[in-house]
Structure to design on (504 residues):
């Protein structure tokens, strides 16, 4: 995968997001990236869309549904939401949409901060295999991967990804 | 294998700083850093320990430690039970192990234990079921590891690098489990210089092995310090005449604005609480600009959240009877 392609995907995402924001008549959206890849992507989108309010970041480790199985993520980072989320139009950004569990956790965390007016989901890659009813509003690229394959993102600059085989 | 760690080197019980690696201590501090933002949420809790039961088992009086442990557990969404042992079964002659077995039969997942005997948290950790975790909230003169970690957290927030710091601990080192844990943690984190400033009568015998510089004069001891940790004078642990009087102690070892001049200009002043005003320190210092005493209390919640969530037992996904009867724990670990 060339860096160029990811750059192009991010450009297309920014264009589509901008159109969606206009279409939904959103005046001042609040962008929130999910650690770690989602924050990398959100930083680029935030810049391209020239958003006024600072980027928020979420670490969903404390909201995971598999804590009782695998325990604490050893590299948990602080969540930083610089603005009140009450009545805000939020653009939630993540790198890869897979089972939908991360998004479920992120929504729960956002709602513990307040009650947003709207949440729009933007992802770089949608690899399918959903386990929860989640859909992204903006998708950079649709993939259809087997469960024995995983997407590995590298970044933040340049942002890139590769598809790896994992033992079943 | 250490009693505190599991086979993968993860935290299993949190009993003392002794025996934990520098990496693990830093992990605890980093995790606490993430929990420190939870009070900014309008719902001041995270669902991490939902469905877990944590028992605060206090055999010795405490307000700050017990309430911050309780608050930490509640902010992790655990159910909390506070047991005041003075008013319970041990008075009726029940042994510690019987009390423990009864609480285990009620399916507690974690005990936070404070006890007047040194080594009691270790003793309990050796006797609980494999799914129960023990957190030491202070045992006799031995250790008070969560207090030490919240102090390290406070120091790191103000001073960043431990390597260049000079930290002085002042007061009753002999009776202080706080001092012992602080010294262990400071040394494990690579603190430049650790000093204790104390009267000869309140210095433990084995102080040569502690890894500290000993001073008996407050003025010379404070010279060039970045962090000043005052200890409480533990009247309840003193037997016999170790000090002439509180007034005399204050004259020699009480911290005042004037004595503080010898420390670095940006030095911070800490105290684990509760403060004996006019004995360990002047009110002017306790309430002054260099005091971070109330920050220590807030940090205590974040540190306790970190330690409790890291030590909480993880289900393995296999159905197992853990001794609470056939219906008790069959589905444990498969609820994710």
């Amino acid at each position: 995968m060339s860096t160029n392609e990811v750059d192009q995907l991010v450009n297309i995402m920014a264009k589509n997001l901008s159109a969606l924001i206009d279409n939904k008549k959103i005046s001042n959206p609040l962008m929130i990236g999910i650690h770690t890849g989602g924050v990398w992507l959100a930083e680029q989108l935030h810049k391209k869309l020239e958003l006024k309010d600072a980027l928020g970041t979420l670490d969903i480790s404390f909201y995971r549904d598999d804590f009782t199985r695998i325990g604490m993520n050893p590299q948990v980072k602080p969540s930083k939401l610089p603005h009140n989320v009450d009545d805000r139009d939020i653009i939630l950004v993540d790198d890869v949409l897979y089972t939908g569990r991360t998004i479920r956790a992120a929504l729960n965390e956002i709602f513990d901060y307040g009650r947003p007016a709207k949440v729009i989901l933007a992802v770089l890659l949608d690899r399918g295999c959903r386990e929860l009813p989640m859909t992204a509003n903006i998708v950079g690229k649709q993939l259809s991967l087997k469960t024995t394959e995983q997407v590995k993102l590298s970044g933040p600059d340049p942002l890139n990804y590769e598809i790896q085989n994992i033992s079943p | 294998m250490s009693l505190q760690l599991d086979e993968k080197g993860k935290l299993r019980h949190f009993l003392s700083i002794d025996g934990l690696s520098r990496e693990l201590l830093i992990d605890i501090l980093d995790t606490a850093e993430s929990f420190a933002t939870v009070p900014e949420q309008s719902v001041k809790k995270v669902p991490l320990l939902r469905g877990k039961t944590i028992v605060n088992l206090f055999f010795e009086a405490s307000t700050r430690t017990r309430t911050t442990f309780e608050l930490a557990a509640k902010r992790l969404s655990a159910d909390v039970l506070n047991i005041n042992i003075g008013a319970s079964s041990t008075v009726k002659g029940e042994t510690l192990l019987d009390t423990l077995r009864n609480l285990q039969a009620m399916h507690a997942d974690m005990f936070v234990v404070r006890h007047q005997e040194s080594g009691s948290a270790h003793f309990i950790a050796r006797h609980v079921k494999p799914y129960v975790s023990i957190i030491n909230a202070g045992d006799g003169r031995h250790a008070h590891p969560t207090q030490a970690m919240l102090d390290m957290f406070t120091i790191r927030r103000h001073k960043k690098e431990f390597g260049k710091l000079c930290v002085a601990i002042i007061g009753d080192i002999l009776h202080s489990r706080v001092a012992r844990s602080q010294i262990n943690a400071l040394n494990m984190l690579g603190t430049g210089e650790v000093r204790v400033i104390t009267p000869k009568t309140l210095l433990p015998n084995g102080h040569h092995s502690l890894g500290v510089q000993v001073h008996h004069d407050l003025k010379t001891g404070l010279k060039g310090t970045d962090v000043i940790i005052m200890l409480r004078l533990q009247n309840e642990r003193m037997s016999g005449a170790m000090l002439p009087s509180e007034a005399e102690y204050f004259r020699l070892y009480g911290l005042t604005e004037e004595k503080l001049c010898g420390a670095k200009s940006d030095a911070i002043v800490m105290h684990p609480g509760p403060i004996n005003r006019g004995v360990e320190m002047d009110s002017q210092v306790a309430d002054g600009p260099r005091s971070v005493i109330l920050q220590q209390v807030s940090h205590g919640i974040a540190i306790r959240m970190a330690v409790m969530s890291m030590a909480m037992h993880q289900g393995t996904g296999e159905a197992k009877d853990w001794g609470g009867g056939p219906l008790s724990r069959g589905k444990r670990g498969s609820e994710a």
Notes: The beta strands of chain A are 30-34, 56-58, 89-97, 118-126, 138-142, 149-154, 160-165. The longest helix of chain A spans residues 3-23. The longest strand of chain A covers residues 89-97.
